Amino acid sequence: MTETIFPEANSPEAVFPETTASEPLSCFDPAVNGGAMLPVAESIERILSQLSWPQQNEEVALAEAVNRVLAQDQISTINVPQQTNSAMDGYAICAAALKENEQQSFKVVGQVFAGGSYPGTVSPGEAVEIMTGAPVPAGTDSIIMREMTELQGDQMTFSGPVAVGQHVRQRGEDISAGSAALSAGCLIRPQEQGLLASLGMQKVKVYRQLTVAVFSTGDEVVPQGQPLPENCIYDTNRFTLMGLLQRMGCKVIDLGIIEDNQQVMESTLSEAAGQADMVISSGGVSMGQADYIKLALQAVGEINFWRIAMRPGRPLAFGQLGSDTGTVAGKETGTDTSKTPFFGLPGNPVAVMVTFLQFVQPALRKMMGQRDWQPVRMTAVAEHTLKSRLNRIDYSRGIYRINDQGQLVVSSTGAQGSGILTSMVQANCLIEIGEPLAQVEAGQSVLIQPFGD
Ligand code: AMP
Ligand code: MG
User: Fold this and answer.
1) Distance 280 CA to ligand 1 centre (A)
2) End-to-end CA distance of the chain
3) For 276-326, how does the pLDDT look when each residue is reduced to its tens digit (9 = 90+)?
């Protein structure tokens, strides 16, 4: 599959609405150097600079909070654990009073269970049998694991070294009362959910859930549930996008496939912008497309058509639907009722997923309120030569694994045509080969972006 470019990018009348003479970023301005491309990092910066952090929040039950983002610092009102307690089943003793290199023998004076407490103070030379989670009795500081001990009558003996404080969990060692257990902007994963539960939270304040509208374009794209006409293709991208969005915790408005008609496109865009926090389409942004999408986008918003220095996914449209004067119907919720970010992703199914991961995901993370988000990247050793193109970031589909030597290695899935969706299915990562490289040799390190974060 050859990639196409925007007609605007080759024409001297090209208009890049957000590029002004004062900006140094003319590298992708076709009038300057024949249509060089916008680097990926620059595109992400431009996108993020047009988006704001969320303002609105709501309270949700803790059980519903996974995949949401905390809207306030979570200050703990309790110590976790609340009491200094045992991490093992065994015997609580005072190790500080032990003499070195002597056979240790203790009189067992009582028992303490989790949830209970030992009423007295334990003297040196005495031990209390203790269960995991039970509070450490007064006078003791360490736990001897039961497996290390022998019991005869009420005499417990053990040998071997003891470190003062061993197998004891100190009060507040996990979270101390008054400290921020979690910060605003943190994504609630199952582990954060558990931590919030350990603080006794029943409800948490989170940023509002995002609603994203998706649609497909193209007369050749047909919905499932009907026979496939000749020269047509079932709509793939809408489902990939809906899955990606659902996995990120977004609500999805499915607008289906929009017919090739400017009027319909305009009304779809306006309506979608009124209902959703973001609108995403696929197809129709590269050269050779009926111009109705671009005309419709120009009519309802300020959209930029970029050629990005990447493969796959070079054409990308991004901008805002609506205007400062509010041409889009006011939304009930949302940070700015008159503007809704729009992404026009390329039509090729692989390019859709790659561009979603590189551009839409960071945008959504910001709009969700997630601070300090970065795509997960690591380095792996190439198992064979990997081809790229100079001056573009190449995202090929890869399979990473740990080899027999315990090394993280990566290989290509094979044919990398941007329409070959099975390459995505075989892959567990994208291999990211930077602009300056045309090739990575076997044995060299290369960046990978594992799927599934
Ligand atoms: P476009 O970007 O519209 O030129 O589309 C590029 C390629 O992607 C063409 O082969 C289209 O048929 C294909 N394509 C566009 N939209 C979809 C879709 N929703 N599902 C599957 N393939 C698509
Ligand atoms: Mg098309």
Assistant:
1) 14
2) 29
3) 999 999 998 876 665 677 888 889 999 888 999 999 988 999 999 985 444
The verdict on the CB of residue 312 being under 6 Å from ligand 1 is: no
Q: Is 355 in the pocket of ligand 1 (CB under 6 A)?
A: no
Q: What is the pLDDT of residue 24?
A: 32
Q: Tens digit of pLDDT for each residue in 69-92? A: 999 999 999 999 999 999 999 999
Same domain (yes/no): 191, 281: no
Domain boundary among 319, 335, 368: 368
CB of 220 sitting under 6 A from ligand 1: yes
Q: Which amino acid is at 177?
A: A
Residue 288 one-letter amino acid: G
Place of tokens 């040196």: 124
What domain range is 179 assigned to? 60-80+173-206
Quick one: 128 and 230 in the same domain?
no
Look up the CATH number of the domain holding residue 93: 2.170.190.11
Distance, CA 50 to ligand 1 centroid (Å)?
A: 27
**For ligand 1, mutation pick of 3, 215, 217, 221 (most atoms within 8 Å of CB):** 221
Name, in order, each residue with C-beta under 8 angstroms of 210's C-beta and a sequence gap of 6 or more. 249, 250, 251, 277, 278, 364, 367, 368
CATH of the domain at 219: 3.40.980.10
Cis peptide before 375, with omega less than 30 degrees from 0?
no
Flag residues of the chain having pLDDT under 70.
1-35, 101-103, 287-291, 323-337, 453
Asked whether the whole model's pTM tops 0.90, one would answer no
Closest ligand 1 atom to Cα of 236: 20
One domain, residues 349 and 396: no
CA 201 to chain centre: 24
Q: Is 286 in the pocket of ligand 1 (CB under 6 A)?
A: yes
Considering the domain boundaries, does residue 327 fall inside one?
A: yes
